Records
---
Amino acid sequence: MLKIEPRGYESTFWRYASPVLALLLTGLTSGLIFAGMGRPPGLTVYTFLIAPLLQQDGLEALAVKAAPLIMMGVGLSLAYRANVWNIGTDGQFTVGAICGGGIAIAFPEAPFWAVFPAVVIAGTLGGMANGGLVAWLRIRFNANEILTSLMLAYITQYLLVYLVVGPWRDPQGFGFPQTALFSDDALAPRLIEDTNVHLGILLAPLFSVGLWFMLEKSLLGFQFRVLGQATRAAKFAGFSENRLVWIAMLISGGLAGLAGVFEATGTLGQLTTTLSPGYGFTAIIVAFLGRLNPLGAIPAGLLLALTYLGGDAAQINLGLPNAVTGIFQGILLFYLLGCDFLLLNRVGWRRTKAGAAS
Amino acid sequence: MTGMTKQYPGCLANDQVALTVGRNQIHALLGENGAGKSTLVKAIYGVVKPDAGTIVWDGQPVTIQNPGHAQRLGIGMVFQHFSLFEALTVTENIALGLANASERAGLRERIVRISTEYGLPLDPDRVVHDLSVGERQRIEIVRCLLQNPKLLIMDEPTSVLTPSEVQKLFVTLRRLAAEGCSILYISHKLEEVRSLCSVATIMRLGRNVAECAPAEKTVKELAEIMIAMDLNAPTPRPAQTEAAPPRLILDKLTIRSPNHFGTDLRDISLTVRGGEILGIAGIAGNGQTELMDALSGEILAGKPESVRIDGLPAGHLGPHERRRARGCFVPEERNGHGAVTTMTLAENAFLSAFLRGALVRFGIIDARRTHAFADDIIKAFDVRTTGPKAQARSLSGGNLQKFLVGREVLQNPSVLVINQPTWGVDAGAALAIHEAIMALAQAGAAVVIISQDLDEIFVLADRIAVIAGGRLSEPVPTREATIESIGRLMGGTGQQPLGEQPVHA
Amino acid sequence: MTELLVAFLVSTIAAATPLLLAATGELVVERVGVLNLGVEGMMLAGAIAAFATANVTGVTSLGVLAGLVAGIALALLFAVISLTLQANQTATGLALTIFGRGFSALVGAGFVGIPAPTLPKLHFPVLSEIPVLGPVVFGHDILVYLSLAILALVAWCIRATHLGLILRAVGDSHDAAHALGYPVVKIRYAAVAFGGALAGLAGAYMSLAYTPLWAQDMTAGRGWVAVALVTFAAWRPFWLLIGAWFFGALMYLSLYIQALGVPIPSAFLSAVPYIGTVVVLVLISRDARRIRLHRPAMLGRPFQARA
C-alpha cells in the first residue's frame, strides 16, 4: 500500500525536483489528451514544445513572448511571497499600455529622447496606479485584493476597448479597432537590427536578478518573506503590513505596466483591443513554476512563452485549436501545486504485513 | 472493570506502560511534561493507535478503534485543550459529540438537568466564544456525563481553573466516583493528586515507574519519583532592598481589543524597577494577550505617556522603536508569532534582533554576523539543534523556547516582558529559562512575566499582580501573598468586561 | 410602463440565476472552511459540457446533467490537490479557473456559432396567464425554480439540521471536529463537490438558457462575482438572494441602457457590473470586525489530521 509520512522539514531535493516532475507529468498528461483527441501524442508534444524553437526566428519569438511574462512573473513572485494575491496583472498590463500608448499617440512628432522615456514612465506609473488602487482598497477598506484586482482587470479591458474603438481610433484605419501606429521615436529601441528583440528583453532578466537580490538579501525582502509566512511574527518584529502591501502592489503593478509598455511599443507598435493573450493568468503560473523566486521566473517565463508559440504551431500544423495552450497551462499549475506535497511528505510503497497493523 | 494493560515496545512516547483502574476509583496519572501521559490516555480513548499492547475493558480484551468506539464502551474524556467550536452554542457543541439522533432528543433539557445536578452551571444557549475557560471545561464534562460513562479521563483539568473552581470540580468528581464512575486523573500537580486521588501511577520518560497511594507520600517524595533527581529549585535571589530607578511604567493603560472576542484593557498601571521581577498571574483569556501586545507595541496605546520604557514615552511607538529603547519581548505563542517556523534559526535570530544586534548594513542582511549571533544563542542556552541553519520547526517546544528567550536576553534589554515563559516546555528547559530570567534581573533589567502557572510566579517574582477581566490588581510582594489570596483575585471580577455585552453570532 | 417593469423583473431574475446557483455552492464550500476560487473555471466547464451534450444529443436535460457532472469533476480535481495534497487553496482555485478556461475553449472550439436546443420555459396553466405576476413568477425555466429551491434547502439545512451543524462545525474548527471523530476531509470533499455541481449548473444555465450559444469565456467573470457575493452575504444564504438580484438588475440595466441608445459609450456600461462588484466589496468589507464575526474561522486553512 501507499505509505505517506510527513518529513517535518522541507526537502531540498524536491524543492528543485518537484517542478521538473510536474513538467514531465504535464507532458505525459497532455500527450494522453492529444491521443484522446485522435492525434499522435509524440508528434503533438513535439510540435507543441520543440518545433517552435527549431523554426527560423524561433528563439527571437520566444524572447519576445517571454519578456512580459518574466516581468510580470517576477513582480508576482514578490507579491505572493508576501501573501499579497494580485491576480489582476492583466489590468495593470493594460493600463500600462494605455498610458504609454497615450503618450506616444499624443506626441507623434516628439524626438526619441523625450518621448520614449515619457512613454516608459507613464506606463509604469499607470500600472503602479492600478496596483496601488488595489492596495489602497485592501488597506483602507479591507477589500479582498484577489477580487478587486481581477475586477479592475475587467474594467481596464473595457476602458481599452472604449479608447481604441472611440476617441483614439486611427482615422485612417478603415474602421478597424486600433490606434494609429506609434512614431518610430516612440518605439522601444531594438537591441539587434531588423529583429523584434527590444529593450524589454534585456530589462526583464535584470529585474529578475535585482528583485531576487532584494528578496533574499535585504531587510526589505526579509520583511516580505516573514509577512508571507507568519503575519503575527511580522507584527512582532515591527514590520508594517500596510507598507509591505503597498510596496508589493506597486512593484508588481509597475512591472506589469512596464510589460504592457513594451508589448505596445516593442511588439505591436500600436494599441488594439486585444493586447494581452491572457498574460495575467499565465504570469501566475510563471511565478509558481519559478518557485516564487524571481530568478526562477526566467526559465519559467521562457517555458510558458513556449506554450504560446506551441499553441500557434499546433493550430497551424495540426489544426488543433490554440486553446491547447490554456489547458496545458492549467494542467501544469495543478501538477506544480500537487507535486509540492513531496516537499513536506515522504511517499513510498510499503508491503502490507497482515495482522501487524492492528 | 478488572484491568487495563497496554504496552508499546520501542515507542518513544510510551514504553511498555501498564495501568489498571479499578471501579469507583479516582486514579491519578502523574508525570512531568513529556512523560507520555497524554499519549497513553489518547490510546485509551482511541485517538492514537498503539503499536502494541492490549487493553482489557470490563474483563474483555478490546481494540479501541476511534473515539466513537471508546464512547460506546463507556469511556469519556475531557481534553487539556478543549475541542469546542467557538461560533456555536453550548447545546450545539454538545450535540456534535452525540452520534445518534435518539441521544440528541430533548438535549437542551438534559443539559440543564445534568448541569444543575452536578453543580456545573451552564447556559445552553450561549455561544462558546463568550464563555470563560472554566465554563468551557464544564461543557466538556457535561458532554461526557450525558453518555453515562463508566470511565472519565481528565487531562490536566485544573491548569485553567481558579483555586475555588478547582475545589468545586473536586466536589463533582468525588460525587461521580461515589456513583460508580471511575476517573483517570492526569496531572503534574502533586498537592491536588494527594487530596483527590486514592491511587497514583507515576510515569517518567514514557515508562511507569511507581504505583502508590498518594495521600501516604509527601509532595517531595512524589516529586522525586516523578523527576528522579533531587529537586534543585532555582536558588532564591536576595530581595531587592534599595529602590532602583523604575524602568517600565504603565500609566492608566486602556486599550480596546482589536479582536472581537478579546478582552479590553482598562486603566492598567504598574511600575517595575531595575532588578525586579513582576509576575502577572491570571486565568487565560483575561487580557494577557492584549497586555503583551500592548507592551511589545503590536497594539499601540492612544497616549504616548501610558507606556514608558526607561522614562521614554513609548505608547505610540511600534515594536521596532521600543526595541531601540531597549525593550525586549517574548510572546506566548512560539509558532508563527515569536518565531517563523519555516525559517532557519539564523533568520529567526535576525527577526527581532537585527536592530540591537546591528545585523543590517545599508539595508542588506549581514549574513555572517546573523549566523554568529544565532550560534551564540545556541551555545549560551544549550539549544539542541544541528545549528543556525536548522529550520525552527525542527526543534522541540522546549528548545525553541530556549532559543527565543535567549534571543531576547542576549540583546541585553533593560526591560524584558515574557508571556507564559515555560508553557509546554520540559522541566530541564524550564529551569534553564528561569535561571536566565533571574540572571537578567540580577544584572539590573526590569522583568515582567505573565503566567498562568502560579508555582512559576511564586518561584520567580518579587511582586505579584493579577489580571482579571482586563484589569490589573495592585501588585503585592510575594512574601505577603498566598495561593488563596492570589486565587481570589484571579476569580474576583467577572469574565466579561463591565458594561459591554458580547455580540452573539 | 408595466411591460418595462415585467421585462426588467424577468430579465433580472434570469441574470441572477447563474450567480445564485454558483454562489449557493460556494457558500456551502466556504461554510466548511474551504476557499475554492475556481468557480469561474467550473462554470465554464459546465457551460461547454452542457452545450456540447445538448447540441450532440438534442436533449437539454442531458445537457444540464452533463454540466453538473463537469462541475463536479473539476471540483474533485480541486479537492484532490488542495485537500488531499494540501496545496494552497488560493493557488489551486486559480489553477482550476485557468484549467477550466483552457478546457472549455478546447472543447468549445468546434461549437462556436452553432445553436443548441434551449431550456424551455415552464408553462403553468392559469398561473402563467396572470398579468405581471404570471410572467415574473411563473414564466421561467426549471433551473430558475431549482436555484431558489436549492437555496431554500441549503438555508434550512445549515440552520436547522444536524448535517448543517456538522458543516458549520467543520468550518469553525476542523481540529475539534476531527477530535470528535468527524471525517473532516470527507465532509469537505462532499461540500466541494456540491459546490462544483452548482457551479456546473450555473454554467449550463448560461449556455442553455441565458445566452443559448457557446462563446469562449462566456461567463465573463460571473464566477468571481459569485465568490464576491458570498462575502457580501456574510455567509448567510438569504442575503445571497438579495445580492444576486442586485447584480442581476445591474447586468440587465447595463444592457438595457445600451439598447436604448443613450449616449454613454457601451464599454462603460458593460463595465458597470464589475465596478459594482468593487464598490459593494468595499462597502461590505469596511467593517472588518463584522466580517470576522461571520467568516468561517477555518476559511482557506489547510487541515492535516494529526495521528
---
Amino acid sequence: MTMKKLSSRERNERAVAEMADTVMRDTKWDWMRTRRARLTIVGVMIVMLIAIPVAWLTLPSLAALGVVALAAVVWWALRMSVRVVADLPDEYLDERQARVRDRAYLEAYRWFASITLLAATLTLVWFVATSENDLVTVDITWAGAMAVFWTFEGLALTLPSIVIALREPDRT
Amino acid sequence: MGRKPKSEDPVFSRIEEHRARAGLSRQQLADAVGVHYQTVGYLERGEYAPSLALALRIAQLVGVPVEQLFSLTPFAEATTDSDVEESV
C-alpha cells in the first residue's frame, strides 16, 4: 500500500495539530501556570521588551541579537504559561478558550492602540517643536531602525499572551 | 438605565454530581464533548456559562435533561437519590 505524500501545507497543519494537542494536555509545564509564575514571566517579558531597543541602541548588533534571542525564550515561556491560547487557530480551541482569546485580543488591541497613539503624539509634538519651515531631517542608523522595529514587533507578538497571563485565574 | 453586564448572571451547575454518577472523570467528559478538561472545571464551578450546543451535549452524555444540569437560580439541595429522581 503506497502512502500518500503530504503537501507542505498538510505537513504544516499536522505539525500544528500535534503541537496543539501536546500543549493542551501536558502537565510538565504546570509549574509555569500558577498565578505567581505567570506574573513573574510577564514581569520578565516586560523587562525584555524594554531591554531589546536599549540593547540595539547601546550594544553591538550581535549582542543585541543575543538579547532578542533571550526574549524569544521568555516569549516561549509566556505562551506555554497560557497554553498558547492566544496564538492557536480556532479549530484547536474549545468555546471557552476561544472566548478568552478573543477578549485578550480586544484588550491587547486597546493597549497597543494607546501605546501607538502616545508614540505618534510624541512624534508630532517633537516635529512641531523642532521643525523649520515644516521640515525635519532625521538621520536613522540601522540600530535605531532595529530598536523601533523590535519595539512594535515585540508588543504585537506578546501583548495578547500577556493579557491572558494577567487575567486568567490560578488554574492549570 | 444601562444593560447589566452578562458576566454578572451566574449559571449554577450540577455537572460534577451527574458526571460522578455516570462514572466519568473530567478528562473523559471533556474528551466526549470536545472541550479542554479545564473548561469542565470552569463549568462545574459555575465560572463559565456554556453555549446551548455544549450544554445539550453534556446533558445527552450524562443522560439527564439540560435543565437538571444548569440553572439561573441555585439548585435545591437533594439529600437522597430518591429525592433527585422525584425532582425529574
